[in-house]
Every structure is written in C-alpha cells, then in structure tokens.
Specification:
CATH superfamily: RRM (RNA recognition motif) domain
Low-confidence stretches: none
Largest sheet: 2 strands, antiparallel
GO biological process, one term: mRNA cis splicing, via spliceosome
Strand content: 15-25%
Mean pLDDT: 88
Keywords: mRNA processing, mRNA splicing, Nucleus, RNA-binding
CATH topology: Alpha-Beta Plaits
Number of strands: 4
Structural class: alpha+beta
GO molecular function: RNA binding
Number of helices: 3
Organism: Aegilops tauschii subsp. strangulata
Helix content: 25-40%
Protein name: RNA recognition motif domain-containing protein
Length: 96
C-alpha cells in the first residue's frame, strides 16, 4: 500500500497500447493492513477489442513491472462497470 504514484496510470496505458487501443485504465489500491502486499494494487485495463485484451494478457502474465510480477487475468465485466473492484472472499489466495 502507498506505492502508487501519479505516473503509474500513464505508464500502464503506454505499455498496454502496444497491444491495442486502451479505452480506460483504473488503479485500485487495497489499503487494509492485513491484505497481502503483493496483491494490494489491482490495475484494470479496458481495451477496445477482445483480441487486444487477450494479446495483452498473454504478453503481460508473469512479466515484471515496477519490481513486481504481473498476474494478468480477465475480470468480470459487470463488476468492472459497477466499479466493484475489491476482491471477493476467496479470490486472493490466503485472504478471505
């Protein structure tokens, strides 16, 4: 927590634009004290086309960014649209 700087959103958009048209970048930081630090920053990227998001997922999964390993996955569109970005119980290993 507390590791998100003002440039992060632009850095993410720039990096992800290599895979296609980025429509939106959202950064969600979990500040709960007992939450695993390596899972505390969630970054959501909305692409114009599904194929672009698939390419980004394949290319980014397991890479290092800002000294951390990227865990890329698709996210429920309904939750994204409702801005329900916090993890659900059982979604993050070791934290309920």
């Amino acid at each position: 927590p507390g590791e998100v700087d003002d440039e992060l959103e632009d850095e993410i958009a720039s990096e992800c634009s290599k895979f296609g048209a980025v429509l939106r970048v959202l950064i969600f930081e979990i500040t709960q004290a007992d939450f695993p630090a390596d899972e505390a920053v969630r970054i959501f990227v909305l692409f114009e086309r599904t194929e672009e998001s698939t390419k980004a997922l394949v290319e980014l999964e397991g890479r290092y960014f800002g000294g951390r390993i990227v865990h890329a996955t698709f996210f429920d569109e309904g939750r994204f649209e409702r801005n329900e970005l916090a993890p659900m119980p059982g979604e993050v290993p070791g934290f309920d």
